[in-house]
Write a structure and sequence with these properties.
The protein has helices at 34-50, 56-72, 81-91, 93-98, 101-115, and strands at 2-11, 14-24. The chain is α+β, with helices and mostly antiparallel strands. It has a domain at 34-115. The chain has a two-stranded antiparallel ribbon with strand order 1-2. Helix 1 runs antiparallel to helix 2, helix 1 (34-50) runs antiparallel to helix 5 (101-115) and helix 3 (81-91) packs antiparallel against helix 5.
């Protein structure tokens, strides 16, 4: 189901479109909320606990970086899972290196689930 709402004005012979809102099922995204941040934080905590080759201080540094990145998501207007993962690959590269490779795919699916608008 696609909903298209267009606000337009006609000035002379030209048509000016001032606002377009398109909601198309799963392609639209929502803003991340506080409970989503807490769930993502718990996910990262479990992922870090699976890594045994890290020292305590290094894990603490990683947790701080993860927490900082998670809380910046609250300010994003229309985040997508692709953009978030791409940003985290750059900024949390050490975290992703110590995690098993399949966990990154799980994180992507979790983000995608959190950011999709449920169909009515």
């Amino acid at each position: 189901m696609t909903t298209l709402s267009v606000l337009d004005w006609i000035q002379g012979n030209s048509l000016i479109i001032t606002g377009i809102t398109i909601i198309a099922g799963l392609s639209a995204s929502m803003k991340i909320k506080e409970p989503d941040i807490l769930e993502l934080s718990n996910w990262f905590e479990l992922a870090l606990n699976q890594s045994t080759r890290l020292e305590r201080k290094e894990k603490m540094r990683m947790r701080r970086k993860i927490r900082d990145e998670l809380y910046t998501l609250l300010a994003w207007e229309k985040p997508t899972a692709d953009i978030i993962i791409h940003r985290w690959e750059e900024r949390l590269d050490k975290v992703f290196k110590v995690m098993p490779s399949n966990l990154k795919d799980d994180l992507f699916r979790l983000l995608k689930k959190k950011l999709t608008i449920p169909q009515i």
